[in-house]
Amino acid sequence: MSKKMKIVPCSGIGKVYGLIAREAVLKVVHELCPEKSETVCLGYIVTGDKEVKEKMEGRECITVDGCPKMCASKNVSIAGGVVKEEVKVMDTVKEIKSKNYGTATRLEADGEAVVNAIAAKIAGKIA
Amino acid sequence: MVENYAVLPCNGLDKCAGAISRELAIKLCESAKNEIICPVFYRVAEAKYNKIACERTLLVIDGCPTRCASKLAAEKKLKTSRKITITEEAKNRNIELANNLRLGENENKLIDMILAELSDAGGKNAQSSDKVQFPNEFEYITYQKDKFIFRLPKNAGFFFNENDCWAYVIGNRARIGVTDFVQKSLSDILYFFPPDIGAKIDQFGEAGSVESAKAVVELISPVSGKVVAINEALEQKPELINENPYESGWIAELELADFEEDKQLLIGCDKYFEIMKKKVDEFNV
Asked: Are B22 and A13 within 8 A, CB to CB?
């Protein structure tokens, strides 16, 4: 079984903050820490399939949520994952204030800046 | 462009096909009056999406054969009007998907092709449930014994049961029929008795029969569902089954009830080919 840290973003459909969560996680697992991290599809986690439950059971995870509904954190816990760190996109958004992060489908420069900042924070927690 | 759809995609995070599913859903909702359903949030807080899921025509888009979105729709007992599975769409169009979450030329091309197809179908689909366009020609593998050649379609989407019947599945529709082994065993087919349109058929239930001077053979349906069409041409020309039981000789179309479950008891082309060869060798055709 993989010992990589599992980084799970919320679904990220329909809101720019969700897209930021998703992009930040992809940046971590593909660019910043590919050897130490991997992601699991939240849509698959919530199916409750035996296979994904076995994959998640007792495994340390970092969740990244775009909004206060905290879908990623809640569902990872339900699936048996151990949420080591809850990352909230809004915390970083408050640090990088902007009127234009982009849309649910395309990020603007300020949105990208939030992605980079969140990705760096997550990478720092993994290293 | 299709309108008034509720679009339920898979989450599309860790596979290229999933990323395409998501992108397709977003494009459908950006360019027309469709609404997206978040597959994760819908599972935990259904109230937000119940209205649009029930009132609109539901389009389910799965990235891969795990079919997370389809499972969710089934769990919520939603009436799915159309299903798209990206890996199957890619295979049917001979498009090779990259092992990359960033969409490239091929992936965007596939999205555009599916969008164009949905656009062609347009409002017609939205109003009249889903009319699926089945291909007219397939590719075959063959097995020859003496002068007899037995064909078997090798295209993705074909499933078989050991009763020598096939189902060709597109989305939530399937065409069903008998295999070459049946038509050659019967020789000249003289009569065709179709199932009733609207009839609900269980998996392995009878879905019509065909008769020759030699025998009557029931079509044992590989899939469960409601009969939505029959091949009317067979009523005048049952010999079309002899000509090609997979193309012009198909028997009925079903709106599938639960293909994911049915599929567990079906076999693919390779496995059925071995079974058919054994039957041919043992049977004096």
From this structure: yes
H or E segment at B71? helix B68-75
How far is residue A52's CA from residue B249's CA, in Å, rounded to a whole number?
42
CATH class of B140-282: mainly beta
Q: Shortest CB distance from A44 goes to which of B25, B66, B101?
A: B66
Q: Do B11 and A41 touch (CB under 8 A)?
A: yes
Q: How many domains does chain A have?
A: 1
Q: What is the tens place of the pLDDT at every residue in B214-250?
A: 888 999 999 999 999 999 899 889 999 999 999 999 9
Reduced to 3 states, what is the DSSP secondary structure of residue B39? helix
User: What residues make up the domain containing A80?
Assistant: 5-126
Question: Shortest CA distance to A102 belongs to which of A114, A118, A91?
Answer: A114
- List beta partners, residue B208: none
**Predicted TM-score of the model (pTM):** 0.58
Amino acid of residue B168? Y
Strands of the B206-212 sheet, one edge to the other: B189-193, B206-212, B216-220
Q: Which DSSP state fits A31? A: I
Ramachandran assignment for B204, one of left (phi > 0), alpha (psi -120 to 50 degrees), beta (any other): left
CA pair distance B182, B214, nearest whole angstrom: 12
Please name which of A79, A86, A46, A78 lies closest in space to residue B11, comparing C-alpha atoms: A46
Q: How far apart are the first and last CA of chain B?
A: 51
HSE value, Cβ hemisphere, 13 Å, CA-based, for A5: 24
State ipTM: 0.80
